[in-house]
Amino acid sequence: MIIIRPMRSLLALGLLLGLAAPLLAQEARVTTARIEKRVIVETIAINGSVTAPRTAHLSSDVAGRITQLPVSLGEHVQEGDLLLAIDGEEVALQAQSADADVGEARAALDNARRRLREGNRLGEGRNIASSELSQRETNVAIAEATLERRLAELDRLEVRLERHRLQAPFAGRLTHRDVAIGEWATPGTPLLTLIDLERLTLDFAVPLDLHHRLADAELEVRLPGSDDWLSAQTIAEVPLEDGSSRQFLLRATLDNPPAMLPGMAVQGRLLLRNGSGPVVPRDALIRRPDGSISVWLAREEDDEWRANEQRVTPGASHEGQVAIQQGVEAGERVVLRGNERLEEGQPLILDDE
């Protein structure tokens, strides 16, 4: 009995090995693709937000009580529309008085000129003293100067009166209103906020070490609620005041922007070209427990395709394609599907052949 048991164990082991050998050699059906040499595009993810560079925090030039407030929060206004009026009755009365003074000065000037014309006619017949004629010329000059002074005073009061009216400096939407009719307005205190929604920009904080690579870079953005990446045009690169952040502001616009509002978060990606080399689809990469990355290649040996595992060093990835820095060459066949349980040297059936 002691001799027979080892014999039976050896027979059983031989039987198992004999059955396993054909299984290891069983052909596997896989899908492959030729490794292509392409321009390597490195994708850098950045985050940003929608901003309104044309934003006005409006305040009054004069102090006074607010008498008119014809706009509502969120309302769209046009350039020149009245936003707010401050009590200007006293200045208006002064302007009326100044207008009357202008009329009086014009009348005085007209009279002085008439007397000078009469004097000139009398002077031709030597019926008026030269001193009288000179005095009349002086009176005309004085009347002209008085009229100029009265006109300047009227213009000054009209400007003061106009400052009691706050008008929209550009077309936009009212986003903040911290005032009501009857309240007192103080010069320099913000009362209304107006933003231009037609000229919104996209602002991104980008690491400074990428600045020298922006010349040939492309920027794509994706707005909240959308799966589409849109091409954006860079319009400014602005250094940030906080030098310790090691970042700069990248400002961009869209040619045909969808509906946006200031403050919306925006995803962005910089596409940086970095030479050319072999690229493989992301599905071809196999990540091992030890952290290494490999691909399965289909190589032809004696008119038969066989699996060959090759460790690789991946690089930048873009749109499902991964650049391979080391390990494969362009033109080789890489396995895309069916690569989960392949073994070295295993015969392959290529679906794409």
From TrEMBL:
Name used for this protein in its record: RND family efflux transporter, MFP subunit
Chain coiled-coil ranges: 140-167
Any GO CC annotation of this UniProt entry: efflux pump complex
GO molecular function: efflux transmembrane transporter activity
Residue stretches making up the CzcB-like barrel-sandwich hybrid domain: 54-194
Annotated keywords: Coiled coil, Signal
Start and end residues of each Multidrug resistance protein MdtA-like C-terminal permuted SH3 domain: 279-339
